[in-house]
Specification:
Strand content: 15-25%
CATH class: Alpha Beta
Distance between the termini: 51 Å
Low-confidence stretches: 1-19
Helix content: 40-55%
Largest sheet: 5 strands, mixed
């Protein structure tokens, strides 16, 4: 990321009056779309691939990280990246939705820096399915997953009139979190692997 914010943001540096106001750190979220921004995919994939593999391995052979990569590359799934921003200069730029979008796009060029986590979403006209969700170790005992979920609900589901959000997981922590967020358990999947 360039050190010169004027270069990055077209000279739109906040006025001195704005600089006096302290802005609280925030979670910035952006859909990283390899279809529209293919140059971003490899650096992002290099960062999240170990986590994607770790979660894929829990699926019992249902899918692997290659399937996730293929779905992201061809636009069948969507990658949501979350970043924690504390830098006051950057936070001032983020004060507008357009500024926040520019800031996160810039952060995606160095995707490991300030990474909170990611979600892989499958979206259709009726539902959003959270296929994978992961927080980096630093954020696993925080409310960042709830904040990320709220972003999905407000900025995707409500915005596009989608009524159902789903997820599935074998991990007990997800059941507790799902209940906390208002989800109801609807099914259990059983699998038998034949020799």
């Amino acid at each position: 990321m360039s050190d010169n914010l004027e270069d990055l943001f077209g000279g739109q540096i906040p006025s001195e009056k704005q600089e006096e106001r302290k802005i609280e750190p925030m979670l910035l979220v952006k859909i990283a779309n390899p279809v529209h921004e293919p140059e971003l995919f490899n650096p992002i994939w290099d960062v999240i691939k170990p986590y994607v593999k770790q979660i894929s391995d829990l699926s019992g052979g249902e899918y692997n990280e290659g399937v996730v990569a293929a779905r992201l590359i061809n636009g069948a799934s969507y990658l949501l990246m979350g970043y924690w921003v504390e830098n006051q200069e950057l936070l001032r730029i983020c004060d507008t939705p357009q500024g926040a979008n520019v800031a996160v796009s810039e952060m995606l060029k160095a995707p490991a820096q300030n990474l909170v986590g990611y979600m892989v979403l499958n979206i259709d006209e009726k539902s959003v399915h959270i296929w994978q969700a992961f927080l980096t170790k630093e954020y696993q005992s925080t409310d960042m997953m709830e904040k990320s979920y709220q972003w999905v609900e407000e900025n995707i589901a409500q915005r596009y009139g989608i009524k159902d959000i789903t997820f599935s997981s074998l991990l007990p922590g997800w059941e507790r979190m799902g209940e906390k967020l208002g989800f109801k358990k609807t099914a259990t999947l059983y699998r038998k692997q034949l020799p």
